[in-house]
Amino acid sequence: MKKIYFITIALLCTLSLCTACIDEEQFDNTPRGNFEALWKAMDEHYCFFDYKQQSYGLDWNEVHTRYSAQINDNMTQNQLFEVLASMLAELRDGHVNMYAAFDQARYWNWKDDYPANVSDSLIKKYMGTDYKIASGLKYRKLDDNIGYIRYASFSNAIGNGNIDEVLFDLATCNALIIDIRGNGGGLLTMAERLAARFTDKEIVVGYMQHKTGKGHNDFSAMQQQTLKPSSGMRWHKPVMILTNREVYSAANEFVKYMKCCPDVTVVGDKTGGGAGMPFSSELPNGWAIRCSACPMYDKDKNCTEFGIEPDIKVDLQQQDVNKGIDTIIETARKLVR
To answer: Rounded to whole angstroms, how far apart are CA atoms 69 and 73?
Structure first.
């Protein structure tokens, strides 16, 4: 019999990372033991049960009954993995994963069930070959004097010096387009660092809660998330943020922050969501798991787990693609003009 240790990871409003290890109930390293350990870990730590129940009727107890019937002592590791992965998919959460040496359980329907609304070949056409690169930022001036910044992943770190140089170079532009389509997230500190260039005062951008007990509704009071203005160069002209369904996690938070800043318009498709900070654990057989444990909300205390609506809804049109035109970029340019 193997002990299971739960590790709670909570990102505080100051974006500091804290961890704590707590002894929990012991489970046998058997198919049944691993199943019960996984279901219990989700039951006690996952943060969106009520929200998912209201959204599409999720009943976690019913899920237990249904998948428990599929567990038997003669299962292979691959068969067990398949059943457990299917159970986790009931949560419809891209932040819920299980990791074995031979596979990773993931839920990607939050993006795969929707139009891509981005074309790498079109972005390359707009960027040309003479664009500049500042760490994770690619940027240039378009021919109508609009600055264009491509930030494909918040996993690519950017320093304040990088942002200063980019904004200084684009300072003469009439407006700015920040294209984060396909950005699946990364470091929240990068989202905050970039968003801080678009406000001159500290503003409330949302709220966060933390799990305080094992019950589905055991949460702390809502704590404000605030965005402080950067001490570096700041932008005071119109900004267009381009989004699609692949905008997730930290990128989803960036959109949430930017919607609170002045002269910002979000153009494109609804974001993918991913509004929960992670909890990590391990099953008796050594498979790692993670799930959303700390829910985050927008400034109006609305949950953004299933995404943020754009200000201007636009899809990439195939007839435009055939002509080498990016419908979403061109819509943003027209709005500026």
So the answer is: 12
